[in-house]
């Protein structure tokens, strides 16, 4: 039993933030009812994004609303604060953060004291200083980026269909994806499926007119599924006329020309950047110990090494992998570890408050599954290798079992069922990015230009 009032602050509303808060509000039910414990979740978004479903959301197989989990609904015994952490002074146990209200008023950032800190801000895209990337690149880490990319791809088909200029047409129908990990391969495969299907509704476009290019700096893609399944994935993509270029880098995309390290040049209006992630910048604005790669230095009990009352897990934390044969190895920053670490983390905070021994995080990686588009996939799970339809089916079953809340499971399953009965939707709603454009035009203003030039 917690004897003194304690405030537990969770920074981040992703996998670790959500599952840790769920665990805490269940284990501290009596303390929360009596008011001796308080759980505060500080997140820049009021929802958690289930990222494995982003490729299907981009392809239109799942509604964007069902890819996210509203924090306030599932964390009904927690206080959810939508804001951005700017710095953390753990020595004084305070976090400085800003909200939309403080930005609106131009007021200074707010300070929030805490007793226990869970730092789980996740990661952000790792952008390299490639000329033109900041101006023309598109990320694929948020639901907004996934839906924006879907609209963008369909708009390119509209542009190509409505022009007689071969240069504009070729640029519109050339799609370059940089990064051969899960995000890049699954996004490319799902969108290629969708675009190929959409061409049947354009009188002057054929699937062969589209050019899809995957650029990967190493010699393999999808390293998580093993070398054999990675080679199969390359073969499968190339069988669909997708140009897979291994051991190749993007050197420039200035002036909408993708220049690769092998000397190839492509005029393109679409460069999707999925080449890795890096720790969230908030970690550098703390007084907590970090590794050389900028992640929190954590113990196997998931507390920050050398910092009492501070905890970490997920992408932001360097947690030792006790199941690895090589000493000093860390757990991979993926969802499989993050969800399991969150449960141990939530239990250990309660153990710490009650003066009980802490649990040790130990989980042997069971394998991975990846989708290569509708009815296609690869999997390497518990030593078994699957490909094609069985792997795709396993991919769907696994992620349906992992997406939080029964509500989301039911909605996703219903959408998959309907998608199997009816045709794909190929409507672009790019105007959602400028919802006031029509009214501004009616009021005598100028139609706003897309800063990326995608429309």
UniProtKB/TrEMBL annotation:
PANTHER family listed in its UniProt record: NADH DEHYDROGENASE, NADH DEHYDROGENASE-LIKE PROTEIN RV1812C
Listed GO MF terms: NADH dehydrogenase activity
The protein's name: NADH dehydrogenase
Sequence ranges assigned to domain FAD/NAD(P)-binding in this UniProt record: 7-341
Organism this protein belongs to: Streptomyces ruber
Keywords of the record: FAD, Flavoprotein, NAD, Oxidoreductase
Family in the record: Belongs to the NADH dehydrogenase family.
InterPro entries for this protein: FAD/NAD-bd_sf, FAD/NAD-binding_dom, NDH-2
